[in-house]
């Protein structure tokens, strides 16, 4: 049996009384490109920092590639991490960053690092503080890739980039995933970015996993139903309503079903439809007065 890229059971992280993550159970297969999506405060960064070994759980368990996060040099070498602010050292040149990477990573691939920098058209002598936001993000990605990790974790790396820089970053990431066999977990608010590259989806809302699975399987099991306004009791058994909207005459539903759907007009939802439906369901089912985390 293949070792999962990430496996959690009841994973919980509290900061004082605040639950940043609560009862998170996941089993993400290796070799997948995973899109992790949810609103601000959902717990995405906390989950990724736990996976990278930057935080320790309050309760529950987490395994990354079959080991405990950051449990030793070998385990650290298996994981590449790019934080949301794509941190670099402003006073160090690009070549200094590559030298630092070579000294601190046992599996460092200098040829790959230099090739990426050349392909990006960057001057290795340029200091990181003089680079644009998109160029710093590309440098951070290069440092993570050149570790030759088995798991590459990216925490909203394009959140602050303009559309062109975001596009170039995602193109670079798609090239890496095509060439290497590493697992990737990519957190993003931008479902359009995830649609182009991800084949596995995790929706996290209010510190809890709402849905997780293969993108094709999830889309195949969900439907948008449009028809005359009717009560939900008219739906056949075995249909789970994820989101509903009604006008005076018409109903539009997003449902999960494996049975015939009657007289509704049935179409396939997009990945964004699915994500927004589960986020809406989770937010509307929150008990009155419960704060947004």
Automatic annotation (TrEMBL):
Gene3D superfamilies: P-loop containing nucleotide triphosphate hydrolases (3.40.50.300). GO terms for molecular function: ATP binding; ATP hydrolysis activity. The lineage of its organism: Bacteria, Bacillati, Actinomycetota, Actinomycetes, Micromonosporales. The keyword ATP-binding applies. Keywords: ATP-binding, Nucleotide-binding, Transport. Signal peptide: none annotated. The keyword Secreted does not apply. It comes from the Bacteria. Residues 6-231 form the ABC transporter domain. It comes from Actinoplanes lobatus. SUPFAM superfamilies: P-loop containing nucleoside triphosphate hydrolases (SSF52540). This is ABC transporter ATP-binding protein. PROSITE patterns: ABC_TRANSPORTER_2.
